[in-house]
Specification:
CATH topology: MetI-like fold
Strand content: under 5%
Structural class: mainly alpha
Number of strands: 0
Shape: globular
Helix content: over 70%
CATH architecture: Orthogonal Bundle
Number of helices: 10
CATH superfamily: MetI-like
Distance between the termini: 30 Å
Largest sheet: none
Radius of gyration: 22 Å
Order of helices and strands: HHHHHHHHHH
Length: about 250
């Protein structure tokens, strides 16, 4: 209830500022689109089918890149958490490459993978891998040693320790890492689709800039926000169900 009220309050505040600016002209009204103008653009794009097409294209690219990065981050995170030599070998490489701004490599991804879908998916996977890996590895390494010793004293095998102790204990941190990774995937998809893309929400936003249509820019940004909020809610729901499912009866 409180979340819904907060969203309604934000919408009311936006309407008050934008419609008030239209009357007072503090800034050029076209630069601050109203909710009605954004909704009108959305309806027009929905009717000609371009809205659904751009949304599905971006969602597909984000989903593919995020899935690849999440699988790699989880696999490598488990490796460095379970095997000290792997951690000693991987950490220096990660800490060297991780601080480099991903956008600095975007032109190289276009050169390596071409202008098609592969470069965009690879760029998203590369960008989101590092924060997810760091978060997942840290969560796994922080599992209470006493839990592991207690389970081992009861005869738990190595697989039992991983499956029944380590992963459940680290699950909240893993979900946080996935949430951060998906948010970053939405962030970089706009940059990836600004270059050499003929579809997608980033391309839709770029068209709004080229043709000076701020309402279209705001609409594209809001759709990305809704997509991120939806996946965030799904990840939180998964975490609650997993934790509840493992709770003692």
């Amino acid at each position: 209830m409180i979340r819904a009220l907060a969203l309604v309050a934000m919408l009311i505040a936006w309407a008050a500022v934008s419609y008030g600016n239209r009357s007072l002209e503090v800034v050029m009204p076209v630069l601050l689109p109203t909710p009605g103008e954004v909704a009108t653009v959305g309806v027009a794009l929905a009717r000609d089918g371009s809205l659904a097409r751009n949304l599905l294209v971006s969602a597909g690219r984000i989903g593919a890149g995020f899935a690849i990065a999440a699988a790699a981050a989880l696999a490598l995170g488990l490796a460095v958490a379970l095997y000290t030599p792997a951690r000693l070998a991987v950490e220096p490489v990660i800490e060297l490459v991780r601080p480099i701004p991903p956008l600095a490599f975007l032109p190289m991804f276009l050169v390596w993978f071409g202008l098609g879908e592969t470069s965009k998916v690879a760029f998203i996977a590369y960008t989101t891998f590092f924060p997810m890996f760091v978060g997942i590895a840290a969560s796994l390494l922080r599992v209470d040693v006493m839990l592991l010793r207690a389970a081992a004293s009861l005869g738990a095998t190595r697989w039992d320790l991983l499956h029944r102790v380590v992963l459940p204990a680290a699950l909240p941190g893993i979900v946080v890492a996935l949430r951060l990774g998906f948010g970053l995937a939405i962030f970089v998809i706009v940059g990836a689709e600004f270059i050499a893309a003929d579809a997608g929400l980033g391309n839709l936003i770029m068209e709004g800039r080229v043709f000076f249509n701020p309402a279209q820019i705001v609409m594209g940004a809001l759709l990305l926000g809704f997509l991120g909020a939806l996946v965030n809610a799904l990840l939180l729901s998964f975490e609650r169900r997993a934790v509840r499912g493992r709770a003692p009866q």
